[in-house]
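User: Hi! I'm working on a homework problem where we have to compare a predicted structure to a textbook description. Could you give me the structure for the chain below?
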Amino acid sequence: MKRFFYSLLTVAAFTAFATSCSNDDDVTTNYKVVVNVAAPEGVSVTDFGSASIVLANEQTGREYKSTDIKTDYVFEVPAGTYSVTASMRHNDGGSVSTFSASKSVSVFENTTVSLDLVESVSSGLIFKEVYYNMVKPNGKMPYMRDQFYEIYNNSDEVLYLDNCMLGYLEGSQGKLPTAWMKDGEIMKEYAMGYYTVAFIGSGTDYPLLPGKSVVIAGQAQNHIAETTPMYVADAPGAMISPVDLSNADYEVCLMDYKPAVSIDNPNVPNMTIICAQGTQNYFTLPITGNSIILAKFPQGVNPVDYAKDTKNFKERPDGSYAGTSYLMIPQEYVLDGLNIVNNADKPDQRVRRLRSEVDAGELFMDKPYCGKSVRRKVESITADGRVIFKDTNNSTEDFLREQTPTPGVIPSAVD
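Assistant: Happy to help. Predicted structure tokens:
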């Protein structure tokens, strides 16, 4: 009897110990993060009409948000490295301005983060939709020709695409921050990689009416028809391209660089390639993403001449790839930009290359090769039917992900 009693005590003690250990393992220590937001001189935080404060864990991708309008925000979060972004909109007599700021902080104790808001890049010309996610018709080889970039006039006046440029930033996604840093911040000029293209005009050759868009195709083909013969029905993940771009407004023809794989649709005008760096076969955003910009050269600055001037090139400031120089575009030229980053399953391998003034957020896909696009949200529709897309310079808030591509189609309802 005594032996049985001791056995019960031993089992009870072991159970209590195991339970105690299990509870300890399940308890996550949270730390207090206080975010102080400071408005620029002449602007009060109380003047803002909307706000978005986001802490995103750079290892797990988990986000903590607040939409309150105030100066101090308090979050309780687990240890880790966080991207902290603030985006606030100010309506001054009908003129809407967006102010933003961002910082990366390590949280392993109670932490205070100070964000100084600066006015975001503002332009009527914006990215309406970007399709870069591609497909694998046979389940194995990616089809890389069907990407497109749609630019929309979100203003109420005619705007001109003359001497606007489109391009991807230098670098690839990974665990390191962008190499283009100075004093711990992303530089206010952007290094271009791959192919940089532009509309070359006198100033009024490329008008874009309010509420209208243009589609720029990597290759202006009917990609549905091109990939249908390649399709293998029983191959895992096999898909046919979702887009017919044979009627795109413009295309990027690489015949002078990659004649073996290039096509030139005679019915679609070609963009002018002002700089080519790298050996890509197509005008293609990597499946893992990269930041893209739409910029406009000042009056009197010819994009071709600008890209020929060696003074407009720089090497990486961290010393890597010594001897290789990249075309630099000042931030004041930028009209719109998107931080397109690595997929949902790789939150620790996302590199933002744009300052928060250009894009305080980021875009990514749940998985690669799913034939989906990112499309800006419709914020409102005017009485005469003109669509106004959301533009807070925070792509996380402004865009819908995993969309069926709709090149040239303007939505008819508010999102």
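For your comparison, note the following. The longest strand covers residues 80-92. Residues 1-25 have pLDDT under 50 and may be disordered. Good luck with the assignment!
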